[in-house]
Design goal:
Shape: elongated
Number of helices: 5
Low-confidence stretches: 9-37
Order of helices and strands: HHHHH
Distance between the termini: 67 Å
Helix content: over 70%
Strand content: under 5%
Number of strands: 0
Largest sheet: none
Structural class: mainly alpha
Length: 223
C-alpha cells in the first residue's frame, strides 16, 4: 500500500512538473511576441533614419551643384568681376560637387544595406504569423514596400548617372578654357553652355523627383 501511495505521489509530482514546464514555456512564448514585434519596429526606424540622412546628403549635393552652375554661368555670360578668379573657383566647386556626391553615394550604400536588413526582418516576421490571411497581407505589403523602394533606388541611380555625365561635360569645358581663358574662347562655348544648362535643369529635376519619392516613402512608413 505504501508503495502505491509513493508511486501515485511521484506521478502527481511529474504531472505538476510537466504542467509547470508547459505553463512557463507558454509564458515565454507569449513574452517573446511583443519583443519580436518591437524588434521589427526598431529595424524600420533604423531604415527611416538612414533614408532621412541620405535625403539630407542629396540636398547638400544639390546646393553645391547650384553653386557650381552659378560660377560656370558667370564665366559663360562674361559677368564675373574677375574671370581668372571665377575660373579658379569653378575648379574648386567642381571638386566639391564631386565630393558631395561621393558622400551621398556612401549614404546610399548604408541605406541600401539597412533596407536589405529591414526587408529580411519583415519577411521573417511575416512567416511567423500563423493566421494565413494576415500572413498573406503582410507579405503583400512587404512586396509593395520593396517595389516602391526599388523604384526610388532606380531613380536615384539614374540621377547619379546624369550628374556624372554633367560633371564630365563641365570638366571638359574647364580644360578647354585652361590655356585659352579669354572672351573669344568663352564665346565659342555659348552653344555648349546652353545645352549644359538645359541638362543641368534636368539633373535638378531628377534630384527633386528622387527626394519627393523619398519623402512620400518615409511618410508611408512612419507610425
Amino acid at each position: 500500500m505504501s508503495d502505491n501511495r509513493t508511486l501515485h505521489s511521484l506521478r502527481a509530482g511529474h504531472g505538476r512538473l510537466a504542467a509547470a514546464v508547459a505553463l512557463s514555456t507558454g509564458l515565454v512564448a507569449l513574452g517573446a511576441l511583443p519583443a519580436f514585434s518591437q524588434a521589427g519596429a526598431e529595424q524600420t526606424q533604423k531604415l527611416l533614419k538612414t533614408v532621412e540622412s541620405t535625403v539630407k546628403s542629396i540636398g547638400e549635393a544639390r546646393q553645391q551643384l547650384e553653386k557650381t552652375l552659378a560660377g560656370y554661368n558667370s564665366i559663360m555670360d562674361l559677368t564675373a568681376k574677375d574671370t581668372k578668379d571665377a575660373y579658379k573657383n569653378l575648379g574648386k566647386d567642381i571638386t566639391e560637387s564631386e565630393k558631395k556626391v561621393a558622400d551621398t553615394k556612401l549614404k546610399v550604400d548604408e541605406m541600401n544595406a539597412e533596407a536589405g536588413r529591414n526587408f529580411t526582418a519583415w519577411k521573417d516576421s511575416a512567416s511567423a504569423i500563423t493566421d494565413p490571411d494576415l500572413r498573406k497581407r503582410s507579405e503583400q505589403r512587404l512586396a509593395d514596400s520593396q517595389a516602391r523602394y526599388e523604384k526610388i533606388a532606380a531613380a536615384g541611380k539614374d540621377a547619379r548617372q546624369s550628374f556624372d555625365s554633367l560633371m564630365t561635360d563641365i570638366k571638359n569645358q574647364s580644360t578647354f578654357l585652361g590655356n585659352d581663358l579669354n572672351a573669344s574662347a568663352i564665346t565659342s562655348l555659348k552653344g555648349d553652355a546652353a545645352k549644359f544648362n538645359t541638362r543641368a535643369k534636368t539633373v535638378f529635376d531628377k534630384i527633386d523627383g528622387v527626394n519627393k519619392m523619398f519623402d512620400t516613402y518615409v511618410t508611408s512608413m512612419k507610425p
